[in-house]
Amino acid sequence: MKEDKKWQTIYRKLEYCSHGGDFTLTEEEKKSILIKRAKALAGEISTEEVMEQTVQVVEFMLASEKYGIEAIYIREIFPLKELTHIPCTPPFVLGVINVRQQIVSVIDLKKFFNLPEKGISDLNKVIIMKTDEMEVGILADSITGISCINLKRLQTELPGLTDIGTEYLKGIGEGPLIILDGGKILSDKKLIVYGEVE
Asked: Most buried among 30, 85, 106, 147, using CB within 10 Å?
């Protein structure tokens, strides 16, 4: 069927050339030409290339600033309830919660990063982060959404924007959106609390 249409177009073009008559493209032909031109101009990017450049990020509020962590590090988001405080732990350890019969430690990144503190409310959520070696919940003031971020467009120069050490940051996106490095946070030895009491 497609071959027949091609030949019909060729015959029409030949007729136009031989008789000098008006030759007009059908709407379908115009659309096909425009699509081919657009693809050529855009230098088509493959799906694989797009996937390599972008990451899915969970966005949340922390001390009146918007932060994000790559979704690959997030197991689930859980409402903060029935927090049990643990004595003799660093100030950034809020305590533990029971998530479906599993005990998860909850840390406050505001205290960990020395950011301005804000009281705990019913809106607080616990973002449970996980790697093969570590699992911990981080306190978020609220969850604002999920977005896809192009890693190549992140700014890496961060003077004066945040007090968080650059070793914990992937970069800054539009908004601004501060992208935290979930892998670095979860591998930080400071999060491992031992039982010794000074």
From this structure: 106
The answer to whether residues 102 and 64 belong to one domain is yes
The DSSP H or E segment spanning 57 is strand 54-62
pLDDT at position 50, please?
A: 45
Portion of the chain with pLDDT greater than 90, in percent: 7
Look up tokens 């689930």; give the residue.
76
Distance CA 95, CA 86 (A): 5
Burial per residue of 158-167, b for 16 or more beta-carbon CB atoms within 10 angstroms, e otherwise: eeeebebeee
* Residues 8 and 86 grouped into a single domain: no
pTM for the full predicted model: 0.65
Which residues constitute the domain of residue 13? 2-44
Tell me what pLDDT residue 90 has. Answer: 86
User: Does residue 138 contact residue 121 with C-beta atoms inside 8 Å?
Assistant: no
> d(Cα 116, Cα 124) in Å, to the nearest integer?
16
Amino acid at 124: N
Give the DSSP letter of residue 155.
B
